Amino acid sequence: MKFFALTAILALALYPAPAAQDKAGSADEIQVRQLERAWNQAEMKQEVGAVDNLVADSLVYTDYDGSFMNKKEYLKWIVDPDQKADHIYDEGLNVQVYGNAAVVTGIYRETGKNKGKPYVVRSRYTDTWIKRNGLWQCVASQSTLLPAK
């Protein structure tokens, strides 16, 4: 009996842990990370067509000020001439993939002009992505304003 227990323990110890694979980054993790960066660039450039492809029709978007938008409202907000981001800086993000779902958390800093006045915003965010028919799209996004340093 001791032989079988020792063999089982040895086999488990030598079996590569899934966590080691996750640290290297799966193809899905890398793809979602790239989509997040593409989304920032498209929003900054007010490229509504590009953003339209990145977010699901069922998108629910909660901005740092508490405003809530569906996809149609969000796309309209991105091209609002009174609000224009000059730069969106990614201060780092983490991607956790769960099969056909991924959760992204991170912090971003945004600078721009709102009604002609400069602004700086720093927020922590959570985005939820779903993979359908081989295509990743964001279905939910929420950000929380961080206090100035």
Can you tell me about this structure?
- The chain has 149 residues and is α+β, with helices and mostly antiparallel strands.
- It has one domain: Roll (Nuclear Transport Factor 2, Chain: A), CATH 3.10.450.
- It contains five helices and six strands; from the N terminus they run ααααββαββββ.
- It has helices spanning 2-14, 18-24, 27-44, 48-54, 71-78; strands at residues 55-62, 68-70, 83-98, 101-114, 117-132, 135-145.
- Helix 3 (27-44) packs antiparallel against helix 4.
- The longest helix has 18 residues, at 27-44.
- Mean pLDDT is 86; it is low at 1-23.
Briefly note the structural class of the backbone: alpha+beta
Mean pLDDT: 86
CATH architecture: Roll
Strand order of the largest sheet: 2-1-6-5-4-3
Main beta-sheet strand count, sense and barrel state:
6 strands, mixed
- Regarding CATH, which class? Alpha Beta
Count of discrete alpha- or pi-helical segments spanning 4 or more residues: 5
* Beta-strand residue fraction: over 45%
Number of strands: 6
The first-to-last residue Cα distance is: 61 Å
Number of domains: 1
CATH level 3 topology: Nuclear Transport Factor 2, Chain: A
SSE order, one letter for each helix or strand: HHHHEEHEEEE
Low-confidence stretches: 1-23
Form type: globular
Radius of gyration computed on alpha carbons = 20 Å
Report helical residue fraction. Answer: 25-40%
Q: How would you summarize what this structure contains?
A:
By secondary structure, the chain is an alpha+beta fold.
Q: How would the blueprint of this fold be written?
A:
Layout: H1 2-14, H2 18-24, H3 27-44, H4 48-54, E1 55-62, E2 68-70, H5 71-78, E3 83-98, E4 101-114, E5 117-132, E6 135-145
Parallel strand pairs: 1-6
Antiparallel strand pairs: 1-2, 3-4, 4-5, 5-6
